[in-house]
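A.,

Following up on our hallway conversation. Structure tokens first:
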């Protein structure tokens, strides 16, 4: 195991928590993530997560409370109050089985759509902060702007500047807002209890009040770029609509509501791809180039969408 102090002590905390409930244990820790914005360790049936440096405890608290209150949608935390470790907030969670990336045909698109539909109908509690999706997109673009000379940078930045201010985190999101996940992708779903319990959403760091179409935007962007087959997009959208999700009309064309968020997620994903390729001094791969090409095709956002496209 990597020996930096946070990771080592996080593993110890996860083990201590796990031993409260398990009777037999191999006492090995698995590193699930070790990034600048999150360090996550699993020990038996317990997961410990060190949140990003500077995470606001006043913003994290209502997010944890919401997950605890709606365990049929969100994986509930094991403790309501975060611990502190090496200046980072730490939370504890039950382990859930993730989506298998080696089996794309088994991707739970219906479950993702249905869970979002339920989440978007949850009453927003007092004190829940704004959903952080646009802020994350802005952060990705800021990192891209620092790359400097790269043939793909200009196209991505032009597409970003064509978005309305709210999608760039430069103005409040149009409202009234609903409870949103803020960073929906298949890596945010797990089965609990393992191995074949119901699917639940994880990762509350970006949870908050905002434009519900943002949560549909990543699969919408993949579909628009040709990266998600039409049948999988349809399964996702139909499940969302069947669950009464408010982000799009119950029937008819969903794109007037999805256009701006889908463009924003295309830009965010392309920005991250270009930043990574530049840092590693390698050319863009086929998927990354597809995203950059989509940014290059984006014109100005239609005026009727720029004001407040999301429903």
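Then the amino acids I'd put at each of the 311 positions:
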């Amino acid at each position: 195991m990597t020996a930096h102090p946070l990771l080592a002590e996080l593993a110890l905390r996860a083990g201590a928590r796990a031993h409260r409930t398990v009777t037999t244990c191999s006492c090995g820790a698995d590193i699930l993530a070790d990034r600048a914005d999150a360090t996550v360790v699993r020990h038996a049936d317990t997961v410990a997560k060190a949140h990003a440096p500077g995470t606001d405890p006043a913003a994290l608290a209502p997010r944890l409370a919401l997950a605890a209150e709606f365990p049929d949608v969100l994986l509930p935390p094991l403790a309501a109050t975060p611990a502190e470790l090496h200046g980072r907030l730490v939370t504890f969670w039950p382990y859930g089985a993730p989506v298998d990336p080696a089996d794309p045909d088994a991707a739970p698109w219906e479950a993702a759509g249905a869970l979002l539909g339920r989440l978007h109908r949850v009453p927003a509690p007092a004190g829940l902060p704004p959903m952080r999706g646009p802020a994350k997109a802005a952060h990705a673009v800021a990192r891209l702007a620092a790359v400097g000379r790269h043939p793909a940078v200009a196209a991505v930045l032009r597409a970003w500047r064509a978005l309305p201010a709210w999608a760039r985190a430069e103005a409040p999101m149009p409202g009234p807002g609903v409870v949103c996940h803020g960073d929906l992708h298949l890596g945010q779903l797990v089965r609990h209890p393992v191995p074949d319990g119901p699917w639940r959403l994880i990762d509350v760091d970006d949870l908050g009040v905002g434009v519900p179409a943002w949560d549909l935007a990543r699969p919408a962007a993949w579909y628009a770029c040709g990266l998600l087959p039409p049948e999988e997009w349809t399964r996702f959208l139909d499940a969302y609509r069947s669950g009464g999700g408010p982000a799009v009309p119950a029937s008819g064309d969903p794109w007037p509501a999805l256009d701006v968020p889908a463009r924003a997620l295309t830009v965010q994903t392309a920005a991250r791809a270009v930043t990574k390729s530049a840092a590693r001094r390698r050319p863009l791969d086929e998927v990354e180039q597809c995203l950059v090409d989509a940014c290059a095709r984006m014109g100005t956002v239609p005026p009727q969408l720029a004001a407040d496209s999301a429903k």
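Confidence is low (pLDDT under 50) at residues 303-311. Curious whether your intuition agrees with the design.

B.
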